């Protein structure tokens, strides 16, 4: 099978050993002889025997009737361990060599010594050590000794049958070595037990306590104590216990409570325990910050600060600091202080209690904001009929301003953060009681602000009608409900402004230019201001009469009347009137032809200028005389070969005439003497055709050209006397 050879070799080897042992059985080592067996330790027995030649080791056996314990050793002496204390054992020895093991030697009895007592040591006081142990089996007494661990000084030894022993008059804080063992009835000592124990330290002396009131901690110091490893400072009050530990001779206790009296004690300790409490030192901390602080302002301008009484407080100091940095304080043994205050400030208030330990911790800092100041320079910068704009200087502490205008039961108000307000929707010509209240979110409105009266501007008048008193004067009537108002009426047009004023309900505006359009408004004015203008009323004056008028005779029965443009006139009516009748024309132009004019008659000339709206201006001018009538029956008679007489029938009235002959060889003129109806032209060439016109001459010397013309032929043959041949008639040119 697999792995067989290894096991086989092992088996063969074992067989060889067995064979060798059998072969050498006759040469086993000799049996040892025990010289002595004794016990020095409660768990072992030491055996001594004579050495056996050839033995390589020895097998020790210890039997107590219940158990058998064997131990292999190299040579004598040998020790069997793991035994029971104070127990009788039967000891045998066998010698062992390579050839085998001898039989057991003759047995020898030996008893293990007593077990060592198990010590419990402590130091109940700085100068004593208490040693305790449990009962040791088979022990009838105990021996305990003590000495300094450093070996200096004497040794104290005590024997006792008890299980405890106290050593006194020892040095405090000193390390001692304690040794103890038990003995049996034979006086044989058992195992000993050794341990070290330090005496507890003495209580520290010369304790010094100093308080840091601001930090609420106490620094405690003392003289060092011999043998102390650690120090614990205790601070005890009715409600708390604080402590600190250190290896040095000073310690700081933190987190003390204000307003508390503590008892301070210091304990020294080491591995043996702590010292007993010393006499305590009393410590009073600073008082706690006063609570239930109340701040009242009554009356305004006076702050009253009150607080509750605190334990260990000898007196109090209240500090009041305004937000502009100014600070005041008061010192009192009472629980109240009074301070002066100003409007619009925030005051920060803190109260401290004091005692011999110092100042109390800072408590809650209270702030109190007084009511904002009232505006004192209220100034209406704009007053109209329905609104008032008011401005004032900003005041301290105001976050918002509330403006109220009161008129009986009607209140108009506005709120704004700016120091200005426009009150609108007011009644005109009304006195309002206006108050500006300052407001802060903390304190609300300052209701003690004074008011002032503001009267709105007068109401706008209502123009009832505009009447014309004369050609260039108008009277304006209006209606108003204002008190003590002065009214100003303005007529405004392209030609300028025209005004009149009155405290009544009408006034007259004069010297208005003709042919103009005006917008008429009325304004009321009082000490409070000016009203808005009334609704405008249009006003149109009559058109202007033309500055110049010219009458020109066109024909004997037709005249042309022309004139300059009259401002504001759109239509003109021209009338010429005499005893013989009237001639009239209507036109939009600045001239007009009038017919049916009777010659030689005086006419009156009238002109009406009419505006687009129908306003009429009657314009009169100087009379006009129509031209004289053209003569009738014009005839030519030859006077000589070169002379012609022109004859006509004169019109009514005395009129001067002028005669003109127009031929190819020249123009020939003659003018008769007054009263004659003929005139002669001499040296006129014959054999030509002449156009003849006899015209009346106006008083101005102007010769009329509209009379009819006749054509005559003047021949050179025949009698020198007689008529000239009439050739025809020409129209006036």
TrEMBL record:
PANTHER family in alphabetical order: FIBRONECTIN TYPE III DOMAIN-CONTAINING PROTEIN 7
CDD domains per UniProt: FN3
Name of this chain's protein: Fibronectin type III domain containing 7
Residues making up the signal peptide according to the UniProt record: 1-24
Coiled-coil ranges per UniProt: none
Keywords carried by this UniProt record: Signal
Keyword Heme annotated: no
Domain Fibronectin type-III: 28-115, 116-202, 203-291, 374-459
Lineage per the UniProt record: Eukaryota, Metazoa, Chordata, Craniata, Vertebrata
SMART domains noted in UniProt: FN3
Gene3D superfamilies given in the database record: Immunoglobulins
